[in-house]
Amino acid sequence: MATKTVVVLDYGSGNLRSAVRAVERTGVQVELTGDFEKGLAADGLLVPGVGAYAACMAGLKEIKGDRLIGRRLAGGRPVLGICVGMQVLFAQGIEHGVQTDGCDEWPGVVERLHAPVVPHMGWNTVEAPEGSQAFAGLEGERFYFVHSYGVREWTLETNDRTKAPLVTWARTGPTEHGGDRFVAAVENGPLWATQFHPEKSGDAGAALLRNWVATL
Predict the structure, then answer these.
(1) Any catalytic annotation for residue 199?
(2) Predicted model pTM
């Protein structure tokens, strides 16, 4: 059987080598590129992202990355967004009063976290829903977060017309101290995304990436 291929999308967003190495360890063939056709042809597309929402969207549009994501999803081809690569999948981002349109694969707004300490940085547990493929075998595990913004409300309602996305939540701190809740991950058919960094999350992150690769 041919080795599966994954493109890590290079659109100028930070150091991507750790993501490439982490996916390579799952046994697939990985290429770091911003080429549209290669991104379209690969079995899986990983969309990373660090820094400001507006800058990431500008870089993504410069290589037609938003169109690439849409084309892949229209054909049911897997996409995984990580950190700001997850945030840009939502309709809008608001940073420092500036509103930026996202890829609009999901409704919702990326906004500053309502937390005593921002950024939310370090290891945290998540509340994964029953039936999650991403978190299969990872109940109670911790993942590495570093972010000041997130999606605090999930607004997509399917009204039972189609299978509802599986949404995983996390908090910026203990509930008893008023920790703010935000979306930590989403599984929506071929589109998966995580707010945390699986490539920086040790064995748990490696297992989640293997779970994603198993769907390719």
Answers:
(1) yes
(2) 0.95
